[in-house]
Every structure is written in C-alpha cells, then in structure tokens.
Write a structure and sequence with these properties.
The protein contains 2 helices and 8 strands, in the order ββαββββββα. It is mainly beta. Helices cover about 10% and strands about 35% of the residues. It has a domain of about 90 residues: Ubiquitin-like (UB roll) (Roll), CATH 3.10.20.
C-alpha cells in the first residue's frame, strides 16, 4: 500500500498538517495538503501545501522566500493529521507566518482576551512578491 493511501482524507480530499520546527519544537503553523502536495513534499524534502483560498498547490516560500525544509513526515494515531518536522529557511529566526512572525500561534489567551506574544520580525509588505525559490 502506498503511504498516501493510509491517510484518512476529509470530504474535500484534504488532511490538516502541522509544521513544527525541528530545532526548537515550536509549532509554526497549521496548513492543509491534498495527495499531490504530500507526494511532492515527500519527493522534494520541502513543504508543499494546498491553498484552500487559491484552490492550488502552495510551495511554502514561493513568494516570501521563507521555505520549509522537511526532515520528517509523521502521521498521528488516527491517520488524519500529518506532522512535518521542518527547518524554516529565509530569515533568522525563521518566519513561518504571513504576518511576519516566527509562528502563526503568536496570541495567548489571558483574562478573556488574546495577548500578542511574538514580535513582527519582518514587515509582511516587504515579504510578498513573486520570485522563484
């Protein structure tokens, strides 16, 4: 059986994917993959996701330059969530979030409100332009 056939895909043919920084253990982001994205990720050793808003493959860093090198692909016990152990490339420290932060999980619940806990490392307006990666 092909490793992709083991996964329990949702009704849209997608699976949620968590990107975790290999060196720190930080959870960087949650995205989605379809079969083609997972196959390309495994082949290239680079994170390739499926953009639901654009309805197409999204090579992480294709515009921002913030590429994720994939070291390990893991599958959870229910076979319905994928975990990527990655190194975030393109800025030090690595930027995974489109807001210019290290992680997409930069808000913490405190006293009934969301508190921003991570600084913007790079202005998003300067990150996004079409360039080959």
């Amino acid at each position: 059986m092909n490793f992709i056939d083991t996964i329990k895909w949702d009704a849209q043919g997608l699976v949620p994917v968590i990107a975790q920084e290999r060196s720190s253990g930080d959870v960087l982001m949650l995205a989605w993959m379809n079969r083609e994205a997972l196959q390309k990720t495994a082949e290239l050793g680079r994170a390739v996701y499926f953009s639901r808003s654009r309805n197409k493959l999204w090579f992480k860093g294709e515009e921002s330059g913030h590429v994720q090198t994939v070291h390990e692909i893991r599958l959870d016990c229910d076979a319905d969530v994928v975990l990527l152990k990655v190194t975030q490339i393109g800025h030090t420290p690595g930027i995974a979030c489109h807001t210019g932060r290290h992680s997409c999980f930069f808000r913490v619940h405190e006293n009934g409100e969301w508190k921003v806990t991570e600084p913007v490392l790079k202005d998003p307006k300067t990150m996004y332009h079409s360039k080959p990666v």
